[in-house]
From TrEMBL, chain A:
It is found in: Cell inner membrane. Keywords: Cell inner membrane, Cell membrane, Membrane, Transmembrane, Transmembrane helix, Transport. This is Uncharacterized protein. Belongs to the TsuA/YedE (TC 9.B.102) family. It comes from Pseudovibrio denitrificans. Its main location: membrane.
UniProtKB/TrEMBL annotation, chain B:
Pfam families: Sulf_transp (PF04143). Keywords: Membrane, Transmembrane, Transmembrane helix. The keyword Transmembrane helix applies. InterPro entries: Sulf_transp_TsuA/YedE. The chain crosses the membrane at residues 6-22, 43-67, 79-104, 111-128, 153-173. It comes from the Bacteria. This is Uncharacterized protein.
Amino acid sequence: MDLLRQNVWSPYLAGIIIGLLQIPAFLLVDTALGASSSFVTGTGFIFSLFDSSITEIKYFAKYMSKDKYFWQSALVIGIALGALISYKASGRKASFSSPSWKTIGASSAPVIRLLQGFIGGFVLLVGARIAGGCTSGHGISGLAQLGVGSSVAVAAMFAGGIVAANLLYKRAS
Amino acid sequence: MEIFWLVILGLTMGIIFGIALEKSRVMEPGVLIGQFLFKDYTMLKMFLAATATGLVALSGLTALGLAELHPKSFVVGNIIVGGTILGVGIAIAGACPGTVFAQIGRGYKDAWLTVIGGIMGAAFYGYNKSLIDGVLDMGSFGKITYADLFPSLPFWMLGLITAAALVVVMIALEMYRPWKVDRGMDQNKEASVNSNAAHA
């Protein structure tokens, strides 16, 4: 419990814990840790309210039927719950957006944060779905399986991120 | 396993994942983007530790015959273009598809818009998949791993060697830049900044 009240953990401890989660993922679900597939599952069920023919699209149908995608959707909801437990336990306060945006010289005006969030989220998932995985699926899980494609995906991810971040933000705080 | 238990398992694993993301501060936009600006090394350190641990775990599981690997296909065009777009998206959103949920749990309201944007992005790709994949088609190497490229070494051996190499990288990184340098300074400040802001 004391560990849960701490403000901050070493990134190594956090990384080891996340890496160990591969064990139940492979043993019990026969899959690797990932996050971005859950967006396709969510999209499928939300869009099926307006577009009943979406289940006829093979891509959506796959993500709306396989057990492991329901597991992954539960996983990302769990991530939100875990972060909620963690920040409440450490006594931090909620805020509209992260105060850390200041450290890279970004505006904290709500309109800008919402707009940037929406655009960023769109680009994020277009990229992740084209590549077939995200920072978890290609990154942490793909590299842990020595995947060649995943190693190229991670290199491309860092290249895109480094160039974009240097164009968008200030290095000095 | 029944769906019910898969969901319970997913939630439990997610809670652990979320706590680790929040405690390590990797879900903060400034930390994630800070890595791309090389002013904060937290993300790289967590990423290396998670990868090395996963390598050791999967080396053990496969050597004992308890699990099978599920590497992703190396579809050349999709991987290079998609990976680059994903990186740009991380820089714009200050989040990954997984850490955005930790931002929601953390109480950041703007993260909801990132998820809505992500749902629209997933829909955009899903509806236009054949068109996009067709444009990017540069062939595929299939589900190839580095263990396939070194057939004389079993996966577990190459896995442990790679994990050891990553540990060396982490030690060097820690000597160059102790993790507390990246963290220590901003925690209390952050708490006081937050106390002035509206909260749920």
